[in-house]
Amino acid sequence: MSSAATRPAGPDDLWSVDEHLEDILSTVRPLEPIELQLLDAQGCVLVEDVTVPVSLPPFDNSSMDGYAVRVADVAGAGEEFPAVLEVVGDVAAGVADPVRVGPGQAARIMTGAPLPPGAETVVPVEWTDGGLGEGPVSGMRSRSLAPQGAEGHVRVYRPAAARAHVRARGSDVKAGELALEAGTVLGPPQLALLAAIGRGTVRVRPRPRVVVLSTGSELVQPGEELGPGQIHDSNSFALTAAARDAGAIAYRVGAVADDAETLRATIEDQLIRADLLVTTGGVSVGAYDVVKEALSYAGDADEAGSGVEFRRLAMQPGKPQGFGSIGPDHIPLLALPGNPVSSYVSFELFVRPAIRTLSGLTDIHRPRARAALAADEALRSPRGRRQFLRGVHAGGKVTPVGGAGSHLVAALARANALIVVPEDVESVEPGTEVEVVLLG
Description:
There is one protein chain. The chain is of the alpha/beta class. The chain is 17% helix and 28% strand. The chain is built from 8 helices and 28 strands. The strands form 8 sheets. A 6-stranded mixed sheet has the order 16-13-17-21-20-18, with helices on both faces. Strands 8-5-7-6-9 form a 5-stranded mixed sheet, with no helix packed on it. Strands 22-25-24-26-28 form a 5-stranded mixed β-barrel. It is elongated, with a radius of gyration of 32 Å. Mean pLDDT is 90; it is low at 1-6.
């Protein structure tokens, strides 16, 4: 399991935030690499350096629609005395055997088409009469509507320097160069590069599969009518979305009633599709704290050390926490408290780093900053607890939103940061510089 089993802890002992996180990160390991098709690898972390097998672009090509010509043939071209060239054919993108351009000749060329033999530069079509003999044009006529545009003569009204409007072979990347290095997260631009250099598959660490389930007989799904004593389940939606935001493939399981056997069976059913399990609710000291009853380390450990240990942390909100592993494959499980703010703060501090570690990332934590506290009065914090308050961070300042209550979902929805009050601080005066965890 985790290193928790060797840590001395009395019944009243509190774990620090750092100790609990260290225990999690010392246990969770990056997932094994697999080979994936490009689109399936989106969001995954590359595990190997990728070099360029073929230069990009692989040949000199035109960056404009226009005419491929020799420099000398248009050197003196002007509005009054245009250069008149014979059009010897079209060069379209994908052509295998382009026409040759000789003295006094031009080939109509399309963007991306290879520069034909004999041509030295490209004249944009807007600098010509497009073969119509009626002065400068704004574009080419479609070949299907006017096939005669690939023959006859064209008037060029401006000179062009050598290799003007030509994209040189290897001007993007050259064969043998490093395209992407190991550790790169594959987004749309990186997948485009891999496709451009001909890679159909790539070796990556897969996105972790995270199963999120909430517990509580009082929970009702959104859209359903509330009965007496019932509330809508918000935690499973918040944490599933947070897991996806962290880069996981996340699955939400509907709320499980307060029954230990039902919870055990539900978790066992989910193990087949989980690299990480997250529960919310049922981890405190009440008579109906079903997660603690069902998964307590003391009653559920096997010979290999699998099981979940529940502990109390010196933090607010989020004091009760659980961590361990379950099932024959020892899938990590993090058990979070049920109050919405406690649950979300716990996710940001502990679950998000675990997900990003499974992904193979090295940057696993939210960014932090220093900001001046913008408040009407001092913030109070219990001594010996690290407090995380919701806040709005902007312009080097942070303003608290809502109170310290762990049920205040509306305040959480307005926040873009967590204000960190250290364990040894009981009061923070307005204007004091504080540490903030940036959520957005």
